[in-house]
Amino acid sequence: MTLTASLINRVVRGSSSVLVGREREVKLLMIAIIADGHALVEGIPGTAKTLMAKTVARLLNLSFRRIQFTPDLLPADIIGTRVFDPSRGVFVVREGPIFANIVLADEINRASPRTQSALLEAMQEKQVTIEGETRPLPDPFTVVATMNPVELEGVFPLPEAQLDRFLIKVSVNQPSRDEMRTLLLRGSWRIEEAFNSLRPVAGRDEILACRNEIKEVRAEEPVMEYVTRIYEASRNHSALRLGVTPRGALVLLRVAKVFALLNGRKYVIPDDVKEAALPALSHRLFLKPEFLAEGLRGEDIVEDLLKRVEVPRP
Which of 41, 254, 270, 302 ranks highest by number of CB atoms within 10 Å? Predict the structure, then answer.
């Protein structure tokens, strides 16, 4: 078993005492953290999005901060500002909640575009500038941004440039009938007790070791060609006004390498690319208005691309 598979499996098992039916979502969140990226989590309220992020942070022994995005939130409320210290007679930097290993940006689309853009430097450069002073962010650093897909009033849709900076998209669905019964049997009190009793199963050093392991994963020419075909097919798809960007193609290959490690290999096969395509690409595809009106989503286009694009043969 690879280091990456061992780490992800331990976190998934550890989270099962708190979360019900969220193994796939926890696995994808772990992939974002290990691959040094950020996750966009979409789901209706009450589906344990916040609890999932808090649980993963505790199991990894990482610092966690939650930012509730609202229309009146300012960039300084996220990154920090300078305040006057009367005891010393000088201005000092007071760091904002962005200075944590895992930052939950709750309902990110409720904040103004100006505030949303304050995350861009942090997400891409892993640093922030507070009144001219640049400060590095902790390592690892992952933004977990949540969105409510059914609430449309008073929201500011994320622009393409910001969506493209999220490594993966995690869609949180409603629990099944059996999962709902398990939740009811546990009850909120028992779930809270289970969360409070969680103990770390890994730490920062193991995450960094997994990142080094990703660099060792090989992707041969046929796999590179397969990713290129998917990229080209998206650029020419009739339903899309904007297909996969070059960054998106690079992300697809990076996530496929993590799936290869998760499956016990240090080389990528086309099945890894297929498994990575939905979380890595669905939020990077922008449909034409007439297809949006028909109810099509990015996930539908990804599935169509995987059917259309020929899989390379060994």
Answer: 41
Per residue in 172-202, pLDDT (tens digit) is 988 899 999 999 998 888 999 999 999 999 9
Q: Which CATH number fits domain 216-308: 1.10.8.80, 1.10.4160.10, 3.90.79.10, 3.40.50.300?
A: 1.10.8.80
Q: Is 79 helix (H, G, I), strand (E, B) or coil?
A: helix
pTM for the whole thing?
A: 0.92
Preceding amide of 113 cis, omega within 30: no
The DSSP code sequence of 9-77 is HHHHHHHTTT-SS-HHHHHHHHHHHHTT--EEEE--TTSSHHHHHHHHHHHTT--EEEEE--TT--HHH
User: Which is it for the CA torsion 47, 126, 9, 270, positive or negative?
Assistant: positive
| Residue length of the chain | 314
Which two three-digit tokens encode residue 158?
Answer: 């994320």
Q: Which residue has the tokens 């979502």?
A: 25
pLDDT given at position 152: 64
Q: Are strands 133-136 and 127-130 parallel, antiparallel or unpaired?
A: antiparallel
**Could you tell me where the DSSP H helices lie in 197-288?**
204-215, 221-235, 246-262, 270-281
Counting Cβ atoms within 10 Å, is residue 145 exposed (0-12), middle (13-18) or buried (19+)? Answer: buried
Neighbour-count burial of 297, counting CB atoms closer than 10 A to its CB (0-12 exposed, 13-18 middle, 19+ buried): middle
In whole angstroms, how far apart are CA 129 and each of 111, 119, 253, 303?
Answer: 20, 11, 31, 40
